[in-house]
Amino acid sequence: MRLRLEKFFSDLSIRKKLILTYSITAVIMLMADLFVYRNVYQTVSTLDDVFEGNISLSELSESLDTVQYTMTGFLETKSTDDMDAYYKAYQDYSDQIASLPYEVTGERTVRMERNIRMMSDRYLEVTDAAIEAKRGRNIDKYRLQYENATTLYGYLRVYINSLNNELLNSNSTNYLEMTRSFHTVVVANVLVFVWITLLNILLAIVVVRRITQPLATLAGAAGQVADGNYDVVIPDTNVKDEPGILITAFNRMLDSIRRGVVTEVRLHEAQLRFLQAQINPHFLFNTLNAGAQLAMMEDADRTYEYIQNVADFFRYNIKKQDAPVPLSDEITMVDTYIYIINIRFSGEVGYEKEVDPSLLSVELPAMTLQPVVENAVSHGIRDMAGEGVIRMKVSGEDGCCRIDITDNGAGITPEKLFEIQNGKPSVEEPSGEHGGIGLQNVASRLRLLYKDDRVFEINSEGLGKGTTVTIRIPIPVEAQEEKDAPDAAQITSQES
Amino acid sequence: MKTVPEGKKGRRRYYWILPLLLVLTTIATALALFWSQRSANLSGKKEEALKTYDRYYAFISDEENSSFWKEVYEGAHKEGEDTDAFVEDFASDLAVGYSLEERIRIAVASGVDGIIVENVNRNAEKNEIAAATEAGIPVVLVGGNDDAGTGRISYVGISRYDLGGLYGRQVVILAKKLLNDRNRLKITVLTGKNADAESQKLLISTIRDSVSADADLYGRIDFETREIDDFGTFASQRSVTELLMDPENVPDILVALNEEHTNSAYQAAVDNNVVGQCSIIGYYDSESIRKAIENEILSATITVDAVQMGKDCTTALNEYLDSGYVSEYFMADTYVVDKETVKAQGGEE
Known about the structure:
Chain A is α+β, with helices and mostly antiparallel strands. Chain A is 69% helix and 11% strand. The longest helix of chain A is centred in the middle third of the chain and has 88 residues, at 139-226. Chain B folds into two domains: 55-152 and 306-333, Rossmann fold (3-Layer(aba) Sandwich); 160-304, Response regulator (Rossmann fold), CATH 3.40.50.2300.
């Protein structure tokens, strides 16, 4: 239960936490106020009650005097005013004695009140009888009743005075006791306030600590990161408040930074390797040029041609890969590659191409087609039993330049094809034999550049059924208009 | 990779102060609240006494300050407590001191359920008792003599004849003892001016008869009565002192018929150094009287069971209100307390 409450509180936002804390504090203070008010009210009420009895008895005594006085007045004068005054006094006195008890109890003052009530009832009967006798002009009777009433009046006066004294004595004792009690209540109230204040301070400290501690931890970690220490880890709190979210985000950000740093280092290393790789083709290119000149001087034309093609190949290869080149250059590069491969493998690779000449000027990234053809040679037809043929078709399609490179080689299993189509590199991604660029690299570059997945597609009907790579290069509008102007003829060639 | 510590723990070393203060304040607050609640409860203790009673009886005596009448009242009150009736020493301590008759009148006006009143045998008292009876309030007479003409429902008292006989036997025993050394004895019986004359007469004649009836004492006893002034403070002590200061008239046996005379007699005997010369037979049983018997200042005392008398009064009223009938008389037991009795009872205690 406690853990659930703690979890509930921890997951609240800082705003809700603060509102809840202030509300709880306010409610506690309100309760303390009410408690203290209740104590004070009770004490004051009790103090009031102490002398209330004395006040009531004084009023009762005055009313009794009025009854006796008005009765005597009427008996003396028999005036209507005196009679009215008597009945009013009678009513007042009756109302006052109505609150006195009839019960007999062990408490002396209560018994005295009871006796006052009983005697008062009797007294009022006698005064009434005296009034009636006076109105009936029965002198003896009203004299007798007057004497009886006066006797009872005397007893009542003495009883009321005695009770008043009794209550005063008792109340004085009670008053002293209550005064002492009141002092205790005051001390208790002060202590309650001190207690509540301390409780609130403790609550505030706990809540503020809970809120600020993760922030302080976060600030410390951020400081270390600013100093270049990326190895910092803040334990995940699993708390859903703002600091908790910040810590989680901070940890993820740190993780990203760490991964970024690693990537950067590796990229740097790759760049170094790439520069090294650039040096080698230059050296090789110069060397091959020298070889070509030597072959020409020795009239070895085929050797010259071969070396010259190889030199052209490497010259093209060292161009910046992301620089756009005309499609014609790319096709020439494929031709050169096929030539080299056929010299190397004794003309085993058949090569067919069908090119729309109007599309030769379409620009595309360098080193796009050659890696595709190289992949077809390496994985498609190199190890096949029959004659391997590579077909390249360049055609226009819906504002694009469509290039299909098809081989009749080994083909791809549906599973592998699925993986390739979904961007997963094959287990052993081949890089060009020349240390060049793999098929996946070509696909990634094209998709990144044209922001369209359809720019590079690879399809195969299965093992032994060859593979087709389709590249769609979008043609800019001005190039499109230019293309549509002349009636271009198809270029078709076949090499072996 | 290192983990960042949560906050700076070094600052926590002072954090224990606040919880400690909180605990101390909690204890102090709890104690203060407990005490304030306790004080409030003490102030409210009045509530506990508010037991109500079915019946309310007025106990009225002319001598409520005497030990005897206090015991009678306590007996009546105790019996009332046991039978759901509150017996009050009625109108005895008001701002004005009322006479017995006025107190009866106040009791009637207060509508009590019954009245227990000492019979002082005054006409005014009889009138008030009659008025109470007329108002339907039963009255029980206690002490003195019975007076059936008042309309009382019952009488609780002492048989004067029995009491006189008890006195007589003690006087005879003491006289025979004293006559071993003397030829004649003088016996003086103290009488009160304020006391019920008939009761006194009956008592004295019974004592006299007892003495006369004894052959060994015949012709050797001078029997006299001495009236003591009961009015005013220390009046009876002065009268007894005057009697004992006269060497010619110092009695051999002095008989006191009430508590006040008994106290006055033994005080005067001590003051006038006649202890041993004058043997005193007193009345009533109190701590001071027992002490006097132990010190041989008093020879013996005749007493009645005052508590039982009080109980009988309440019982009589209860019976009458329950059934409409009650016994006409309740007679209290009388007995002698002498040195042997005091020793025996002291030993038991």
